[in-house]
């Protein structure tokens, strides 16, 4: 994690926002950091003091949290959104409503420090999405289709309500959706009717904390005060940037949900086509027909083992080597009739692991011919397009690194499925 010292942010909007927090009951003891600007990560959180493992780094009172409960205490409670729109879209509608209120909104000064734009794939053009790796492209396309569908429903609900909601144009809706996607937390709380609920919420100030996968943190709702708190198990020194962990997410998820990517992301994977891994099996048939259409009895036995254990897809590698599923499938495809009944134990034998390692290396070398791993030049392209190209180049590096992993190291990492 970065130990660089950030420069405190003294913009008029940030100063007014922090003063608002103090007026609303957030004391100096409720927060261990101040907003600052850091090289590399931009706006972040700078520790005001040494932070020890187990400390609460921020504690925000419930009346400052943008939640579905807060929405139900606003005029939006009259809109028939429940059951028709997802929780994130309902929260996005509430945030957009508050922004449209201007100074009349309790959260007006918070809205003033939110980014004017984001870089999630909802803001990508069709041409930029086409440059993404296939897995991210599929996810981005599905996310946009869902957003468009719910946008139509929200427009219909607002138009038929007579509520003075303010303008609802696609660009503003996307901004609100990206605000929720990049900032929302899972919020377990006591609802206004007394029941315990878990939904999404945006917590002012907490969203100043940037991500590091090496940070160990956890969010919680205080059972009595209902404050949302972040507890760190990672110590930070005074002046250091304070990080939280958004979770074990690969760059596909990071870009689609948060709008940024991480070079060398340890959770990135490259997926092999089942046809490449199980090339001797007739995978173009239905699962029930694969076994009977195998060309010999040994392939039929292998197919039965693979099908009965669900090992016919999701074959991947990471920078640590092949996944357990890939290792197991390749080993089974190399086993004879005597090994197949006890394939789990046979998988652990050194000779079997060496054979799998050679096959993985061959698969990786074949994968380098994949057009996904040979993107065009990024020169002269937009920032989003350059991000897409970088992601594909990083996948190429991942495949190359998997070739370079010693056989015993890569396979020992895959020995036990997680």
Structure notes:
The protein has 418 residues and is an alpha+beta fold. The chain contains 16 helices and 14 strands. The chain has helices at 12-23, 68-72, 87-101, 108-111, 126-130, 134-161, 170-183, 251-258, 274-277, 287-290, 297-308, 324-332, 343-347, 350-367, 383-404, 407-414, and strands spanning 7-8, 33-38, 42-47, 56-60, 66-67, 185-190, 196-202, 210-211, 217-221, 228-232, 243-244, 270-272, 315-318, 321-322. Strand 13 and strand 14 form a beta hairpin. Helix 3 (87-101) packs across helix 7, helix 6 (134-161) runs parallel beside helix 8 and helix 14 (350-367) crosses helix 16 (407-414).
Query: Using only CA atoms, what is the Rg?
Result: 25 Å
Oligomer: single chain
> Count of DSSP E strands?
14
Instruction: State the end-to-end distance.
Output: 25 Å
Overall 3D geometry?
elongated
How many helices in DSSP terms? 16
Strand content: 5-15%
**Strand order of the biggest β-sheet:** 1-2-3
Q: Residue-averaged pLDDT, rounded? A: 89
Estimated structural class: alpha+beta
How would you characterize the largest beta sheet? Answer: 3 strands, antiparallel
* Secondary structure: helix percent: 40-55%
Low-confidence stretches: 407-418
């Amino acid at each position: 994690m970065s130990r660089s010292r950030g420069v405190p942010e003294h913009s008029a909007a940030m100063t007014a926002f922090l003063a608002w927090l103090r007026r609303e009951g957030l004391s100096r003891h409720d927060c261990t950091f101040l907003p600052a600007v850091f090289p590399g990560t931009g706006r972040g959180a700078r520790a005001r003091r040494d932070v020890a493992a187990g400390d609460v780094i921020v504690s925000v009172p419930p009346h400052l949290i943008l939640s579905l409960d807060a929405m139900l205490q606003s005029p939006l409670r009259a809109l028939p959104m429940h059951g028709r729109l997802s929780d994130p879209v309902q929260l996005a509608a509430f945030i957009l409503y508050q922004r449209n209120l201007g100074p009349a909104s309790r959260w007006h000064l918070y809205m003033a420090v939110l980014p004017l734009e984001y870089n999630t794939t909802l803001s990508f053009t069709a041409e930029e999405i086409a440059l993404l790796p296939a897995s991210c492209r599929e996810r981005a396309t599905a996310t946009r289709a869902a957003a468009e569908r719910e946008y139509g429903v929200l427009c219909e609900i607002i138009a038929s309500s007579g509520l003075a909601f303010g303008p609802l144009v696609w660009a503003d809706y996307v901004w609100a959706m990206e605000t929720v996607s990049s900032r929302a937390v899972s919020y377990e709380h006591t609802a206004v009717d007394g029941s315990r609920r878990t939904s999404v919420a945006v917590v002012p100030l907490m969203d100043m904390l940037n991500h590091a996968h090496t940070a160990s943190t956890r969010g919680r709702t205080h059972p009595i005060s209902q404050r949302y708190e972040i507890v760190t198990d990672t110590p930070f020194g005074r002046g250091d940037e304070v990080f939280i962990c958004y979770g074990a997410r690969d760059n596909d998820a990071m870009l689609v949900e948060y709008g940024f990517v991480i070079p060398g992301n340890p959770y990135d994977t490259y997926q092999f086509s089942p046809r490449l891994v199980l090339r001797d099996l007739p995978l173009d048939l239905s699962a029930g027909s694969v076994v009977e259409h195998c060309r010999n009895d040994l392939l039929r036995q292998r197919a039965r083992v693979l099908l009965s254990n669900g090992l016919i897809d999701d074959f991947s590698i990471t920078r640590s080597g092949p996944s357990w599923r890939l290792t197991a499938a390749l080993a089974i495809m190399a086993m004879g009739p005597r090994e197949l009944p006890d394939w789990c134990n046979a998988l652990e034998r050194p000779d079997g692991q060496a054979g799998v390692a050679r096959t993985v290396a061959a698969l990786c070398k074949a994968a380098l011919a994949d057009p996904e791993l040979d993107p065009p030049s990024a020169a002269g392209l937009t920032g989003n397009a350059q991000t897409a190209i970088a992601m594909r180049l990083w996948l190429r590096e991942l495949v190359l690194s998997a070739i370079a992993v010693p056989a015993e190291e890569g396979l020992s990492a895959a020995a036990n499925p997680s």
